[in-house]
Amino acid sequence: MKLFYFILFLFMFSFSPSFGAIQDCDYANSNIGYVKNQTKKALIMKDLQMARFYTFKALNALEKSKKQIEDCGCEYASDSVIENIEYLKNATRATSLAGSRILLNKALEYSKESLDAIANHDDHGSIYGSNNLVMNVESPQEETTMAFLDNTKIRQKIDTSLMKYKTSLDKVINTVDCAEARAFAQNIYENCEQELLKPHLSESKKYYNLKTKEITAKALERLGKCER
After folding, report:
1. How far apart are CA 215 and CA 220, in angstroms?
2. Cβ–Cβ < 8 Å for 155, 207
3. Where is the signal peptide (predicted)?
4. Contact between 91 and 107 (Cβ < 8 Å)
5. Is the pLDDT at 39 greater than 90, yes or no?
6. Judging by beta carbons within 10 Å of its beta carbon (0-12, 13-18, 19+), is residue 155 exposed, middle or buried?
7. How big is the CA angle at 45 (ends 40 and 50), to the nearest 5 degrees?
């Protein structure tokens, strides 16, 4: 009977929206969002070399993100990423701006498809099936439980520290010139994007940067375009 409850416990947390793969999907979503933005920058360039510069940034980011996308477990997103990489590679070899833009527009479509696939991941299922559950069941109960509790405590500490960051950011928004506040927040947002692209980032650092990015994104939305 104890084994039954242990398996049930693992099943709940292995497939719960608040645990495991869902967090990996958040990381993948962040990285693909960055790829999408770099692709859009490449599209508006009027110089082929500059278009290639941003295309390479998008391509490098996507290559670095394959592990996070794989961990997310969304086959639809993974398939879109494979196509996206090919279009971006071909765009770097384009000999004209017009040809580059055709390929970049296709790459942008695949970025959007990947983001949509991750957003609707729960509706079409996951590549994680019984094998994932079996792997977890084979681990010692005490080790699995402690790992979960330790991870929860770390995230709680990070959430507490980020409450102070949010308060400080709100103060900047309310007291500093809009353009300066926007530049400050944008710099933090972009730094978080760059950190999340690193392949060997610890789980706590990934969580910290993801949540910092989310808080900063809301601040940037509040600031708008700083029109006078």
Report:
1. 9
2. yes
3. 1-20
4. yes
5. yes
6. middle
7. 105
Taken in order 99, 105, 107, 108, is the CA torsion positive or negative? positive
Query: Looking at the domain 2-124, which fold is it?
Result: Four Helix Bundle (Hemerythrin (Met), subunit A) (1.20.120)
pTM exceeding 0.70: no
| Residue found by looking up tokens 């069941």 in the block | 137
Average pLDDT over residues 149-174: 79
**Residue 193 per-residue DSSP state:** H
Sign of the dihedral defined by the CA atoms of residues 175, 181, 187, 193, in that order? positive
**Structure token pair of residue 155:** 């995230």
What are the pLDDT digits (tens) for 44-89? 999 999 999 999 999 999 988 888 888 888 888 888 888 889 889 8
State pLDDT tens for residues 99-117: 888 889 889 988 998 888 8
Domain positions in the chain: 2-124, 140-223
Q: Locate tokens 């000999």: which residue?
A: 95
- Residues 58, 42 contacting (CB under 8 angstroms): yes
**Highest-confidence range of 6-10, 46-50, 105-109, 162-166, by mean pLDDT?**
46-50
